[in-house]
């Protein structure tokens, strides 16, 4: 699954003892024959299934998963005898026990069940989606909702083959995991029945069914049929995704050495979808805004998102679908691997996208959670659906990906790939645990992959490596020290007790490195030339912070544009920002380094500066210094913006356009420049009338900068665009996501009311409210609104997606009073699916208060020097 990309990465600690919700081992499924008849008008469905099972030991009862299912006739056949089974429901644990009068012998048996279910409006299981005045029936089974569509073994290790058929309305189509084998009229009046090819062995959470008037654009890759499907109005937006899918499928066939096993590949955009996308075997489903791209008018951001999310989901066809984790505590074997792999086909297809910079950003996302005391180890025990849903987080995704890059860089990419291929082959159509991976890769590569990986997987937190280098003639002596990093100063026993085996890689030339495996607390290294400013994280590929003395940071930054790769410059600034956050360095060290890199050509470097300065503006700089700070930002960055020119044009390089967008926001919003805001307003008004007046990559930024100084007239113009743009997701969300940038309290209120109105899809409500909570000017009003509407939000948004997103957003507060108030509220209104998320949000508030207390006078001193 791919989480919504907008989502702030969230996360935590060993969970409390949970009630076991695992199925007892009474029987194991080998094959399902599933038949469904959805009733789109009444939002229900009828189901019939036959499950072939192997009974472990003689027994008279079999327990399987079922939720919100009304059982009809149930029989079990074994040894040629059919018996009627009695059904006992355990609603709390989402299980049903089928009991027969005479015990079943061990060995083969089959279960026949007829039942009915509901097409719910909670975006989980078999659910109802609406668009263009009609209903659709669609699915999202991961993690634990296949049990809402059919009774079965809804745990990942129970793999079986599936025959699926659907009886649907005449005129509608259906898509499922397998190729469509036949389409016959009836048997009921006004219906036709579609039969799909048997799937290979797979887990129940990968079953998919989509019913409605979907239309598809067809292509192929390596002889595999590939289609991208949509509601009829969005078909013109599917060409880019199809091209990306064809490229990526071919890439993975070659990289893994295992040809795609699921027969055909369909990719379907769904009007209502809670996550970003879902890797159902052979039938990947998507939130529309992350799949569709206008062939002429898509921004770089949209093209990269589509290609990247698609790449993640296609990678899952091997990592997750072919080889599946045994249990959800190893979800990182799915998500971390798909995140890590996803960049590889992109790097091959579009080298100018510089995905190595996106990878360093992924690492920064991971550490923003892993620097917390309430983080969790990559492998965390989980039992309940609430706990399972909560581990789809930045630790499972971005941290695992970063750890894999660390090891890949240390072992060497070709050798590491050989190890990964061997693991995939060995566990194909089966399940694996973490140990199975690192044991196999260590065996094949002959490198200590197991020794490096195990501590990273089982211990929480990110290591910080202190680097002190001294020139000794023609060599450099380096002292290294490792401990656990905490984003907030304070005593901790863990810092000194945790040890990793960290591959620390020094840059020794433009393309050469020297790696040392740092396994002890202290270690000495010798580098073969004099390099007192040696850079200790080549291409930012290591999962650790480097801490240099402040003057070394300044010296490295001064020569960075010539001496370091863009990914290294990004890594340097990212790490230094955390040295400031943790109180290890004064903010002046970061601001000096950022000043040295203000003219950097790499858009990601400028984005890092932009986001750190925005945070400083909102949370660190004292009220009395805000005007001086804004003035410094304008002075330091306006010339870069002016030399790029606004708005520029579509023919320019993507890099130049991205850099312009970041600088426009930096000077216009953080620098609070009235001139830039005015200019943005003029451009925004022109853009509303003529969509070709702005380069696509600049459009969203112009809309939000204009909104920062915007009035009701501009707000009304934005809102008026939305109903006209329902068939153009990217354009729609450009205006939609600009709404939280309006600061006028009356407009903030209007956005809040709008967020819960029927005009906003429930999948989007939490993004809008979360966006308002994350901004200092709208935070209090949005929080008051959330409290006042808590019950109805909980009912409408669902406890797995929307509410946890809102819970995460309260981490943006930055005062002790608010921390206490927010904590109190959630004590009275617990959110079991966001228990760790909330602890992390509270810690983020505390950390912000600590940064403010520690750094605001340092900022003041630095400003005095810088603006003299
Ligand atoms: Zn995923």
List the helices and strands and how they pair.
Elements: E1 27-39, E2 44-55, E3 59-65, E4 69-78, E5 81-84, E6 86-90, E7 95-104, E8 107-118, E9 125-131, E10 134-140, E11 161-169, E12 173-176, E13 180-185, E14 191-196, E15 209-212, E16 215-221, E17 224-230, H1 239-256, E18 264-270, E19 277-278, E20 283-287, H2 300-316, E21 323-325, H3 332-349, H4 355-370, H5 385-390, H6 395-411, H7 413-426, E22 430-432, H8 434-445, H9 449-458, E23 463-472, E24 475-484, H10 493-497, E25 502-507, E26 513-518, E27 522-527, E28 545-547, H11 550-563, H12 566-581, H13 587-596, H14 603-620, H15 626-644, H16 654-670, H17 674-689, H18 696-708, H19 712-721, H20 729-736, H21 745-755, H22 762-773, H23 779-788, H24 790-809, H25 816-828, H26 835-866
The chain binds zinc ion.
In short:
The chain is of the alpha+beta class and 868 residues long.
Task: Characterize the structure shown.
It is a single chain. The protein is α+β, with helices and mostly antiparallel strands. Strand 9 and strand 10 (134-140) form a beta hairpin. Helix 11 (550-563) runs antiparallel to helix 12 and helix 11 (550-563) packs parallel to helix 13 (587-596). The longest helix has 32 residues, at 835-866. 54% of the residues are buried. It binds zinc ion. Zinc ion is lined by residues 1-2, 279, 312, 316, 335, 338.
